[in-house]
């Protein structure tokens, strides 16, 4: 699977909506998370190699080892945390999720998947809230939004995740109930059984997005509130589009015009 970057993400990363003063810290956090995620997703590394490299990231982050070629982003992240005074916990939670990716490739049920997303997605929103001055009372809606975004990505990439990484993020009990199995993900289009599972997943995502609706109105930073509303609008549109398109047949994403509409709608709401 090709490495991703900020320009290829579904949602804005460090966009012009945010303060120019804070954008470099946002991009440092993104680069740290992306570099670690790329290790976890590399099909050419063994599970042991992935775990070893991710543990090295954590040691550099915590000042327990000097920076190296693989630890440059971790060194930059450690410096950013020192400047902003933000806890390293969010970075450590992400690394825990990526280490889990190295050894765990199936999820028993929705609760199991959500537990993973609490490590792999929720820390991103909490970091952003802390960076922009709070409040921590907004963590709940932020968690819901970030977990929804994560699972949208899982639905988009469900075929590649299985074919390339033998990884399935759809709940195993839902697959069994629908009469589907992991091998359905290797096909060129969705079986009727797999389509049911995807629709159940998209419905659960819609519930998470509904839970995140109050977020923009809770944030101290107007700029972060605007970006949150934009992300929520784009997420709703993409979730609906996945409901009417087959992610196995093609990569389902928003067109530039659809994305622009989401941006405008999010700003207007904000």
| CATH architecture classification name of the largest domain | Orthogonal Bundle
Report the uncertain regions. none
Instruction: Please write the string of helix (H) and strand (E) elements.
Output: HHHHHHHHHHHHH
Tally of strands:
0
- By secondary-structure content and strand pairing, the structural class works out as mainly alpha
Q: Largest sheet, described in full?
A: none
What proportion of the residues is helical, as a percent range?
A: 55-70%
Radius of gyration, rounded?
18 Å
Oligomer: single chain
Q: How many angstroms does the end-to-end distance come to?
A: 36 Å
Share in β-strands = under 5%
Please write the CATH class name of the largest domain: Mainly Alpha
Q: How large is the count of helical segments?
A: 13
Which fold name fills CATH's third level, the topology of the largest domain?
A: Farnesyl Diphosphate Synthase
Q: Choose one word for the global shape.
A: globular
